[in-house]
Amino acid sequence: MKASVNDTHETVALPGPAVMRLLHPTDLPEAREIYQRGWWFGRVMRSVVVSMKVLRWR
Q1: Any idea what DSSP says for residue 26?
Q2: Are the C-beta atoms of residues 26 and 36 closer than 8 Å to each other?
Q3: Residue 3 has what pLDDT?
């Protein structure tokens, strides 16, 4: 049985490789807020996990 694949649509217009070969998420205004929110969430959760490990170690 073959699984059906849903079509995906890009929500941002990426520049061509001739214009900008390497692209960072903060280069696109549409992706900047989502990327920064995830980055800060990762920073906060990393400190929470480290704190829990320190408290457990004691």
Answers
A1: G
A2: yes
A3: 61
Asked if residue 31 belongs to a domain, the reply is yes
- pLDDT at residue 4, as a whole number: 67
Name the one residue in this structure whose structure tokens are 């170690």.
57
pLDDT in tens, 30-56: 888 999 999 999 999 998 888 888 888
Query: Domain total for the chain?
Result: 1
CB distance 25 to 35 below 8 Å: yes
Closest CA to 24 of 36, 11, 41, 42: 36
Give residue 50's domain range: 25-57
Residue 46 lies in a domain: yes
Instruction: Burial-class residue 24 by CB neighbours within 10 Å (0-12, 13-18, 19+).
Output: exposed
Which pTM value belongs to this model?
A: 0.53
